[in-house]
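Appendix B, Record 12. Input sequence as logged:
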Amino acid sequence: MVDHIAHVKQYDPQADNAVLGQMLRTYRLVLSKPDSAQVSFTDPDEVGRVRENYLRKKLGVEGSDDELDAAIAEVGAEMQGDARKDRLVVYYLLAKRFGRLAVFG
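Logged structural output:
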Protein backbone atom coordinates (compact mmCIF):
# COMPACT_ATOMS: atom_id res chain seq x y z
CA MET A 1 0.00 0.00 0.00
CA VAL A 2 1.26 3.44 -0.93
CA ASP A 3 1.72 5.95 1.88
CA HIS A 4 0.28 8.97 0.07
CA ILE A 5 0.79 11.33 3.00
CA ALA A 6 4.49 10.45 3.27
CA HIS A 7 4.79 11.00 -0.47
CA VAL A 8 3.28 14.52 -0.17
CA LYS A 9 5.67 15.27 2.72
CA GLN A 10 8.61 14.54 0.43
CA TYR A 11 7.58 17.67 -1.47
CA ASP A 12 6.31 19.70 1.50
CA PRO A 13 7.62 18.49 4.87
CA GLN A 14 5.43 21.08 6.62
CA ALA A 15 2.20 19.86 4.97
CA ASP A 16 -0.78 20.07 7.31
CA ASN A 17 -1.87 16.59 8.43
CA ALA A 18 -5.52 17.66 8.80
CA VAL A 19 -5.60 18.91 5.19
CA LEU A 20 -3.88 15.75 3.97
CA GLY A 21 -6.29 13.58 5.94
CA GLN A 22 -9.28 15.33 4.38
CA MET A 23 -7.77 15.05 0.90
CA LEU A 24 -7.13 11.36 1.49
CA ARG A 25 -10.76 10.83 2.58
CA THR A 26 -12.05 12.83 -0.40
CA TYR A 27 -9.99 10.89 -2.96
CA ARG A 28 -9.85 7.48 -1.24
CA LEU A 29 -11.69 5.66 -4.05
CA VAL A 30 -9.60 7.24 -6.82
CA LEU A 31 -6.38 6.48 -4.94
CA SER A 32 -7.36 2.85 -4.37
CA LYS A 33 -7.18 2.04 -8.09
CA PRO A 34 -3.71 1.76 -9.65
CA ASP A 35 -4.73 3.42 -12.93
CA SER A 36 -6.39 6.45 -11.36
CA ALA A 37 -3.97 6.84 -8.43
CA GLN A 38 -1.41 8.46 -10.71
CA VAL A 39 -1.50 11.43 -13.06
CA SER A 40 -0.15 11.15 -16.59
CA PHE A 41 1.22 14.57 -17.48
CA THR A 42 1.76 13.46 -21.09
CA ASP A 43 -1.90 12.57 -21.69
CA PRO A 44 -3.84 15.66 -22.87
CA ASP A 45 -7.14 14.11 -21.75
CA GLU A 46 -5.76 13.57 -18.23
CA VAL A 47 -4.41 17.13 -18.05
CA GLY A 48 -7.84 18.35 -19.19
CA ARG A 49 -9.56 16.35 -16.44
CA VAL A 50 -7.22 17.75 -13.77
CA ARG A 51 -7.81 21.26 -15.10
CA GLU A 52 -11.60 21.04 -15.37
CA ASN A 53 -12.61 18.67 -12.58
CA TYR A 54 -10.03 19.54 -9.96
CA LEU A 55 -8.78 23.08 -10.54
CA ARG A 56 -11.98 24.65 -11.82
CA LYS A 57 -14.76 22.62 -10.19
CA LYS A 58 -13.21 21.52 -6.90
CA LEU A 59 -10.87 24.41 -6.15
CA GLY A 60 -12.73 27.17 -8.01
CA VAL A 61 -9.59 28.40 -9.76
CA GLU A 62 -10.15 30.83 -12.61
CA GLY A 63 -7.87 31.37 -15.57
CA SER A 64 -7.40 30.40 -19.16
CA ASP A 65 -6.79 26.81 -20.19
CA ASP A 66 -3.20 27.78 -21.05
CA GLU A 67 -2.57 29.31 -17.60
CA LEU A 68 -3.99 26.30 -15.77
CA ASP A 69 -2.21 23.84 -18.05
CA ALA A 70 1.06 25.69 -17.37
CA ALA A 71 0.54 25.30 -13.61
CA ILE A 72 -0.12 21.58 -14.09
CA ALA A 73 3.02 21.30 -16.23
CA GLU A 74 5.06 23.09 -13.52
CA VAL A 75 3.94 20.51 -10.97
CA GLY A 76 4.83 17.78 -13.47
CA ALA A 77 8.30 19.30 -13.86
CA GLU A 78 8.69 19.48 -10.07
CA MET A 79 7.87 15.76 -9.89
CA GLN A 80 10.01 14.86 -12.91
CA GLY A 81 12.48 12.69 -11.00
CA ASP A 82 9.70 10.74 -9.29
CA ALA A 83 8.68 7.57 -11.12
CA ARG A 84 5.29 7.65 -9.38
CA LYS A 85 3.17 10.72 -10.16
CA ASP A 86 0.86 10.25 -7.18
CA ARG A 87 -2.50 12.00 -7.69
CA LEU A 88 -2.64 13.15 -4.06
CA VAL A 89 0.76 14.83 -4.42
CA VAL A 90 -0.31 16.51 -7.65
CA TYR A 91 -3.58 17.70 -6.13
CA TYR A 92 -1.86 18.94 -2.97
CA LEU A 93 0.83 20.84 -4.87
CA LEU A 94 -1.77 22.45 -7.14
CA ALA A 95 -3.98 23.45 -4.21
CA LYS A 96 -0.96 24.94 -2.46
CA ARG A 97 0.18 26.77 -5.61
CA PHE A 98 -3.24 28.40 -5.97
CA GLY A 99 -3.69 29.10 -2.25
CA ARG A 100 -6.66 26.75 -2.01
CA LEU A 101 -5.62 24.28 0.70
CA ALA A 102 -8.42 25.67 2.88
CA VAL A 103 -10.91 23.85 0.61
CA PHE A 104 -9.81 20.71 2.49
CA GLY A 105 -9.63 22.03 6.00
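The CA atoms of residues 26 and 104 lie 9 Å apart.
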